[in-house]
Queue: 2 jobs
Job 1
Amino acid sequence: MKNLIFKEFRLSIHPLFYLVSLFGILILIPNWVYFVAIAYILFITVPNVFTTNKAQNDITFSILLPVRKQDVVKARIFSIVWLEAVQLVVAAIFGYLNHIIYAKNNFLMDPNAAFIGFGLVMYGVFNLVFFPMHYKTAYKIGIPTIIATFAAVVFATGVELFVYFVPFANLAFDASDPAMVIWKAGAFIVGLIIFLVMTTSAYRISARRFERIDL
Amino acid sequence: MNLLKVTNLNKRYAQFQLRDVSFQLDEGYIMGFIGANGAGKTTTLKCLLNLTHPDSGKIEMFEQDFGRNELALKQHIGFMFGGVDYYAAHTLASILDVVKRFYTDWDDETCRYYMNHFSLNGDKKLKELSDGMRVKFSLVLALSHQARLLLLDEPTSGLDPVARDDLLEVFQELVEDGKKSILFSTHITSDLEKCADYITFIHNGRIIESRSKDDLIDAYRLIKGTLDQLSVLEGKLVSYKTHAFGFTGLIKSADITHPEKFALDVPSLDDIMIYHVKKENHDEKSDL
């Protein structure tokens, strides 16, 4: 597995894709929808990684290697999860700066620990839709990207509306009341668990589908 | 030792079917896998490696079941499908740096030897190489991990005659030690006349012949005669073509009863392939 992950970052994923995580700087825009800042990875990085790899005949190369087909899927999903994690770490850094710079709370959800938790679930939703759809053919990228991005955006919109209109949710996940820190930490932990469950399921379904394909 | 043994391989698609494909390859030999376009060569090779899942059949490599020992066996085989056109914008050195990590028997010294032997420069990008050089790079990958069985899908197609001849010489050098074997598919039968020890001929998903090249050529004769003679022989011929002066056909050597009455000639592999394909196509039309 570690050799396949080495291959992912040596040949398949250009280091420039790390720069996409710098869209996290948009979290410094006052009164904005911060989910957009962490969604660029879904709009730009994921489809470009898969399109570039299709152009470079990555599947042809990978099957030359003495590996299981399921490990090819695992290494790719791991690489994308790594980039998602980098994106959220960058977002957390700029979220902290946002907190220091602006005295007033954001109009919509603040970039706090709960936001990172919901961001993880947004990535989980994307992963659960995109990877199984793509690995059904190991060829189609456009439709899976559109549908998975739509699902992630619907989720993020739902979270913003939920936190804006439901008073308790607003208090627990958005307002900077020190007594409510536990709710934000809880949202982060639950978000992380949901992300892991969704991404693991995405891997299992994708690996099964990829295994069935006659290459 | 059998490096490869395929028994009753079947794979059904909507429009095409591999039917009871069986053949075997001993160590130290080159086997040519011939057939017209769409005959089932690539599908068979992909089934051998489980890239395409066969419906039934048994595949053994190094006398071990491939399905049960896939990862271990892949350490000892090298394969090439559909041209070497992956990661073309990367240097050969960066591709080697990745590939070497996957093989326990990878030998840098052997790798350097074959890179020099084939005049390949690690700083060059794959896209800067000619088709022939790309195939050679693919061989470097296989040979550096001490592969003993090479499965190559049309390695010579698209190469000019000089590059083809050069590559065929390389194939012959590789099997000289008697430990490695090469199975390569092609529809350019002249390649096989130069270097193959065995021929497996597939048509419409069925193996028509699988035996040594000399036996195969000995087993058939081109036969020429008048149209009157054709009526006597017709049932015995594999197939034939008629023309203004009579007919030319392919016949099994064992079926020739009065050799003195006919003009007989040694067939080329092309002749054997063409007349068999003609027969199959004729039989299919008759069935319809």
Job 2
Amino acid sequence: MIRFQARLVLALVALALAPALPALGAAAPSDDAGAAPEKEEPKDRYLVVVGADIHTGKGEVLRDGRLLAKNGKIVAIGYDDFEVPGLDYDREVPAEERGYELEIIDASNVPNGRVYPGMVAFSTSGLLGGGGDYRDSIDMFNRNMLLGLASGITTTGQSSSTAKLKRYVPNSAARDYDFDGVVIAGKTLSTVSWGSAASKRSLREKLSGAAAYLRAYRQWQIDVKKDKELKEPSKSGVDSTMLSVLRGETLARFSADYQDDLSGIAKIAMEYGFRPVISGCREGWVVADELGRAGAMAVLTPRTRRAKDEQLMAAGGSSIENAAILHSHGVQIAIIPGSRGIDLGGIAGRDIMHLPIEVGFAIRGGLPEDAGLASVTTVPARLLGVSHRVGTLEVGKDCDLIVTDGDLLHYQTFVQYTVVDGDLVYDKQDELYFAHIRPRDDSLLAPLVPFDPAEVPIEEEESEGDSEEEEAEEE
Amino acid sequence: MKKRTTHLLLFAGLMALQPTAQADDLFAVQVERAETVSHGTIEHAVILIEGDKIVMIGEDLPIDIGIPVIDKDPGWVATPALVNPYSRMGLSSRGPSGLNPQRKVSGELYTGDISKSVLEAGVGTVGLYPAGTGIPGRAVAVRTWGSGDARILRDDVYMKAMMRSDSSSKKTWRKGFEEADEHKEKEAKNREKWEKDREKLEKDAKDKDDAEKANKAKEELKKPYVPLTPKPAAAAFMSLRDGELTALIGISKSSDYIHFLDALGEEDVQWSLHVPISRESDLFHVKGQETLKGRHVIMTPAFSYHPGTLRRRSMAAEFVEAGAHVAFVPTSDSTSAHESWLRDVGQLVRAGLDPHAALRGMTLSGAEVLRVEEHVGSLDEGKHANILFFDGDPFAATTSLEAVLMEGDFITGEVNR
């Protein structure tokens, strides 16, 4: 298969990436000489994905599309035979004689193969193995990191930074580990408490102080043009956290579930003109219009079940439709499971390995599928301040992607390959955790008579799924 | 080769025969097989020992009349005495934390000796490491017998450094090099100043008007340059760079190793690894590392399981296959662990570890970590006569240790020569 495609591709040498030619040309002779120190110039790394439908995460789907990445960034997506001159798709040149590294993910052996952007988990624990400064404490061999990658997560928010699940690339001892690529953003969220009357009053005071300072500052900016001697207004007594929120440098993050709290947050946010991020937001569906007007963003766990307060004379409690209603009122939704870590005991399906299942609950309540995908890709990326690098598959963005064997949001779907920064860091068949479940045809574990999911009667499968969900609802 | 050694033997024999006093010191042991470790196996080996040294070893060497011979062919197998490069036997386990590379274990030797059972179990040399976390100090290589400083074979054999996946241990390591850099800079400035002063003094010395001043200057000029005394940490890291000191890096998991390489950066330092083999060790991840080839890795003879499974893995065999020199240490510092050491390594051999690599791991590799391979660790001419005699394959379960010879004296077994 690869061979055939490669011939085709080689025949049509496109010049789109001609600038890469001199670089390759220059690298080749020095490699031949064998005297050049290898550490000086790292080889260019290419990654090609073929044979699957590419879901870019922005709405487009490219049936049997192609994706090319160079040195960890996506350089081309499409149907064209975008081709780097000299790139040997046939792998006829032995690896050590090449002036570059080339990884080809041929997903044609994956039934119903789809490519998605790697998922972004808003908040996790234990996936990076370390603590504090992740650059110097990451455990790149961590089992939980591998399981995170196996479940499709490539980027995660931590207490005060955003990091990639940069696993040590198997069999790449020659290349240095990219320590500097681990943490991709610092603090983007300021935790704000919204609880007692005193805390609400103090928040209002801080906000009004910060707003007053900003007004004075803006006036000074105008006045200083006339009178250069004029002093900048003093920052003393101004709350720096609220100042950064009002300036848009960080997002105010609240934790609230009840409708009166949510409505209060929406009001104060509109009053001072900032967009609140609300974790929990269980009764958000009751006050969705207010939250939508305030431009709120919500971090939900759609699986949550909680009856309403008995004394409450209005609608309340959790609703399966929460995400759908909030979304229809313009609230951006990020979804996170109830447990932020990886639980290998107890009840399965509620930990961070099951992001798509959690999204499934929101879709069951009516959330459109594209919003469901966005809730684990673009929205959390935006909240974590890394949407310029991850969350969608676009030229220029990081090559963080997953290849699945079906719709990402279907509960039976498995991640077959995970790529972080253009490196293949997870292959289902190579790791011992899920290799035995529906093995790919090329695997040693594959049954002698290939299993075709299309032959399974659809009605039977659906009724099974329904009864399971009904059971869950009855809980 | 054989001809030459024969010739030498005759010569040595003659030399030994002439003054009768020396002849008492000279004796030979003939064994079925000698595992030299450094240059393979010698069948029907004759080992000629004079005083505390091996003077000659070879196959079927003719022995001069008058030299006492212990003839154990067939029967015995000779191997070098064992070397344990990483121990706290007889010493307290308390130590400091942080950057203390100047501390020496040799200063604690008075506090305790090593049990005689360890010596009788065939362990001749022990490396005593500094206790504590961070960079707690420098190890010393000692004999397992005697007491106090007389035991020392070599001091400052390695600097121990604990490396964990966290910013503080990486910082400790980097700080050492930074201090070395600072000192180098200061030293250069100091030297420059001294040279400038000297120029001035040279001028003064030529001053014909003021004879007193000129004489004083001449006196000053005779004084040599006195380099600055570096801070202890700077001194240690400078000797690391010079290769006078080696480092033993203690890690507990694979990521510690990758973080160590990051902290090391471009520094050119000699180092070995110490890795504990825990039940679910993940150290197999680093075995393909280019930087591990030819490196010494200290570990206990134990099996581990692939994480999350009951699949047994032999880290020792995997590291040996990857080109590292594995140096074994007993599972603990107890005498019983030393007594069962050979059997423990024997388990790994039965599970597929190359027996030659296993024996090397208990002898020469440890000696190399301790940088005393010129004296112990293999059966070679000129080395200490630290030899073990077994009644068969040393790793076989039924074999027993028949005799222990340390620096020419039988500790157990044969006494009649």
